[in-house]
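Sample A.
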Amino acid sequence: MRCFTSGLALLVPCSALWAQFAVSDLPRLRNFESERTSSFDRSGGNGDYRSLKSGETLTLFDEKGPAEIRHIWITMSTGEAYHLKKVVLRMSWDGEAEPSVEAPIGDFFGLGLGTSTVFQSALLAVAPDQALNAYFPMPFGRRGVITVTNQGSQEISDFYWNIDWVKLPALPENTAYFHAQYRQCTPCAGWYKGNFYSNNFAEARGDARWKNKSGAGNYVWLTAEGEGQLVGVTLSVFQNQWGGLERGR
């Protein structure tokens, strides 16, 4: 049996600034300055992209706060298979030693199997032609940095991005920051070695391990301390048991 499992837990500490406002809030004026950081052609031409060679790191965002990121859009062109598992996305706030986000770019945007699928949700969306969108509010006080690293073997010839953010006069005292944890197991070792194809698990049910009272060997979604809000989990599974190739997310 071959099995691959990956999970991305998204954690927004409590009292975060929610970026998307209701229509009824539109007439209310707010004290901020809208900004955009993007891959636009600085020469004034139409080459609104960057190349990303194998092993290279590209900085998408490096701005001073106080501020809040409100929308991230990314798309890319490459011939390498499963490149969404091979580009690592990192986000750091206020000069921290370890990034608050470090995950394959596909998993961050809900595409944990390395291929593109169109879907839409309140905080993540993938449009046709692999347009990756995230709407999580991401405030920071002093500095925010976002990078991508190409760990694949081929160059990404066209890498595009737009990051919409706002400059703020200050962050409220109860503001906390966005985090995401990535985990995977390849393969995910199981304990039952019998015949999966018969769907007869009488032998397995007779094993003491069928009821795992201790939790030993369970897959860990998230390890965190302090106050916060878990806003979502992306689970991706690839397996080839039970009579054929099965994929699920």
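Sample B, a different protein:
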Amino acid sequence: MQVKPLPGARNTSHLRRSPRNGVRASPIARLAGPGRSISSALPAPLWQIENVLDAPFRRGQTSSEIDQPMKTKLSYSQVRQTPRPATPAGWSSSEKPQAALTPRLATFSIAVLAGWLCLAAPQALIAAEGHARGLRPIFNGKSLAGWRESEPNPFWQVRHGVLIGENDPARRGDVLYTQKAYKDFVLDFEVRWSGEIDSGIMLRKPELQLQLGVSRSLKRDMSCSFYTGGRDIYPRTGRAKDLEKYFKPGKWNHILLRAEGDTFTVWLNGKEVVSHYTNPKYSDPAPIGLQIHPGLKMKVEYRGIRLRELR
């Protein structure tokens, strides 16, 4: 099948550096390798943007002329419908893919694909990333500096940048609090556990808890839901939605908590699972705590604990 080139396109596959002509090879030509047709070397649909990417390397162009080809735009229909060039003479259809997809070309293709995926990122993930700006570590990954540990402390230890919390042999519990009190903030961290645990993040005064693991009262996983300790221990508007869909058992889970005024919002792995839970009762600043529940043999791990104060 013969393919008509795009308007203004030229075949640049011959532009390789040589002692005779001293011409610089374009990036696409170098990806294809010597003796290869650029268009046939690129995997569809990337071969169709070859002439746009190679245009600035045409021989004898001024800077203004170099800028001009980049204004060429390909419509979605052009990229999707234009057929791929026929297999060059001397190549069989089975040989062509192996010869064309060089490691450098594969790297280029992956980079373009990653860019497309970033453009298609969900709005919830973009919102979570926006809240994560300006965060600073409150756990240094080396010690418990900045935290108030119990004396003695059989519960918490730091290994390879990870904060590990476990019960002692008597299955007593503990809460590891920050030395500083916080009111309005964004808290960002990763957490991991296996099996059944009952842990959580303590905040504000009176104390409000972001549950991690199985609720001892409800006997089910209430991770990322708010526990009040009152009559309505897990208020409906403070419960995580679609937890089983976004939570990764036994793996690192990324949680972002925003507490501002009387409103609390939670993201789990980039997904908003608690949307603007409001309760004016929890209004005063307090240290942030990490809980180990008593009466249950459990182990929980935290890393990358970061915070940004909002006021």
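Observation for Sample B: Residues 13-23, 38-85, 91-101, 119-126 have pLDDT under 50 and may be disordered.
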